[in-house]
Structures are given as structure tokens and as C-alpha cells.
Design goal:
Length: 285
């Protein structure tokens, strides 16, 4: 616990130092799309107020595309620094598995939204799916604010809620990621009773069935504080990884999460938003 708090403090100090030393610049991310010359010419021919609106909309689209692509960087840039960090995390999880402690189902949980849990879930699932002969399933368990399908560019016909209500089978609801040996159970329809569905016998059966069919099942949970959803899912999984974000996650929130989760199931914590020696942001487990 003290190691996590120390890492949060060091990350905050390092980020402040880099912000003070660096001049304010706007750099294009490696995965951001660029405007074509034809698009630029069209913008220049527009009236000034129309150009202003078009440029603003284009910047918003670029920001959204960059954020979505960042969530699947292990697929788009498998040799990147961030992808290597997730490979290291995969190796640490594999090292914890023993014959008397199988780790078929792993929940990823964070205290609050926006701390990088979905990004970690997607990229950890992607790098695990690279292992030869390994079947991997990623389940979006956030029935309130699902993001996995959008991040991976999927358009599921069926989803988790339909499986839990008996409207579809698991096979009918699974979508495969193009270019990756990864199956995904997304959320298509958001139900009016998400907590009841996630704590139901149908959810328990789904996790058991998935564990029998796949070598590793990653469960992307909703934010843990304020809702019972995350705890219900974590209690049914073999292990859990807690995601915290430098400069954002409060120490008291981490402590609260640790108090109501089963500590015997906690595999470790991942500090998101750390700064490496080369000034690159990534994950530290």
C-alpha cells in the first residue's frame, strides 16, 4: 500500500517538474489522423466564420480519434513503449498463476471513472491474445457507460444484457476483433436494472461458462465507488487488478476500495500516467 502512495507522489512531482521545464507546445500523437490536402483546400474556401466552426469540429474529431486509438495502442502499435508495459503486466500475472490458484477470470477495477481502467483492460487483453494457442475473452461489464465497443470500433448485434436476460446466447453475442485473436462481449443495450443483472445467477453462470471456454477472461468493471456493480463482479472472479491514476486518484479512494474488496483476490495495482526516464507516459505495476 505504501509503495502505491509513494509512486503516486513521485509521479505528481515528476510531472510538475517536466511541466515547468518544457515550453507549452501542442504535439500530434503518433496515432492521430492528419487532415488531407483536399480537406484543407475546402476549408480555405469557406467564409471565416464557417472556417472557424469547421476547424473547431475537426480538432474535436482528432481529439476523439486520438483518445480512442490510445485505448487500443497495443493493436495499432504493438512494438510501442506502452504495449511493452502491458506485456510486462501480462508476464507478472502469468507468474502468479499456480495449479492451486487458477487465474482464468481477472477483473480490472478503479475507484472512479476516467482512471484508465478500460484502456488497461483492452490493451492487457490484446497483448494476452498474442500468446500462441491462448483463447482470450474481454467482457465489458459496465452496463451504464460502456466504452469497449467504441474503443475497438465494434458494432455488436447482441451484448451482455441480452445474454443475461436470455435473449441471446454467449456465442451469438461475442464479436471478434479484426486483426487480433481476441473475442469481445460488448454492451449493446443499456438496461434499466444494471446492478440486478450483474449480481444475478445468470451473471455467475456466464463467468463460469466463459472460464471453461477461454484460457483468460478479462472483466472491465464499472467504477467501484458509489455502485455495487464492481464488487459483485470482483467477488466472482479469480483475481483483480486495481487501476490508479497519477495526479487524479486520491489516496482515500484507494483505501476505500481496498476495504470492501476481497484482498486475497488482489493481484496488484497498476499506476497509470507515470513518467518514464525518457519522458514517456505509461503504466507501472
Amino acid at each position: 500500500m505504501a509503495k502505491v502512495y509513494d509512486a503516486l507522489r513521485r509521479a505528481e512531482e515528476e510531472r510538475r517538474r517536466l511541466s515547468d521545464e518544457a515550453a507549452p507546445t501542442v504535439a500530434r500523437l503518433e496515432w492521430e489522423p492528419e487532415a488531407t490536402s483536399q480537406e484543407s483546400a475546402v476549408v480555405r474556401r469557406q467564409p471565416w466564420f464557417r472556417r472557424l466552426w469547421t476547424v473547431g469540429r475537426r480538432r474535436a474529431e482528432l481529439a476523439q480519434a486520438g483518445e480512442l486509438n490510445k485505448r487500443r495502442v497495443s493493436l495499432l502499435q504493438p512494438d510501442s513503449y506502452v504495449a511493452e508495459q502491458f506485456r510486462a503486466l501480462r508476464g507478472r500475472i502469468d507468474a502468479l498463476e499456480r495449479p492451486d490458484r487458477p487465474l482464468r477470470t481477472i477483473s480490472l477495477v478503479s475507484a472512479q471513472p476516467g482512471e484508465g481502467k478500460t484502456t488497461a483492460s483492452i490493451n492487457l487483453a490484446l497483448v494476452t491474445a498474442l500468446s500462441l494457442g491462448r483463447r482470450v475473452l474481454l467482457v465489458d461489464c459496465d452496463l451504464r457507460r460502456p466504452n469497449v465497443h467504441r474503443s475497438l470500433g465494434l458494432q455488436p448485434r447482441r451484448g451482455l444484457s441480452e445474454v443475461l436476460t436470455g435473449e441471446a446466447t454467449l456465442d451469438e453475442a461475442i464479436t471478434q476483433v479484426e486483426g487480433a485473436n481476441l473475442d469481445v462481449l460488448c454492451v449493446r443495450d443499456r438496461p434499466v436494472n444494471p446492478s440486478e443483472l450483474l449480481t444475478s445467477e445468470a451473471m455467475k453462470k456466464l463467468i463460469v461458462d466463459a472460464a471453461q471456454r477461454y484460457d483468460r477472461v478479462f472483466l472491465d468493471t464499472p467504477a467501484a465507488l458509489g455502485l455495487p456493480d464492481a464488487k459483485a463482479i470482483c467477488d466472482q472472479s479469480d483475481g483483480m487488478v486495481i487501476i490508479v491514476r497519477a495526479d487524479q486518484t486520491r489516496q482515500e479512494d484507494v483505501q476505500t476500495v481496498l476495504e470492501f474488496l476481497d484482498r486475497d483476490r488482489i493481484l496488484g495495482m497498476v499506476l497509470n500516467g507515470t513518467v518514464s526516464d525518457q519522458g514517456r507516459y505509461g503504466y507501472a505495476s
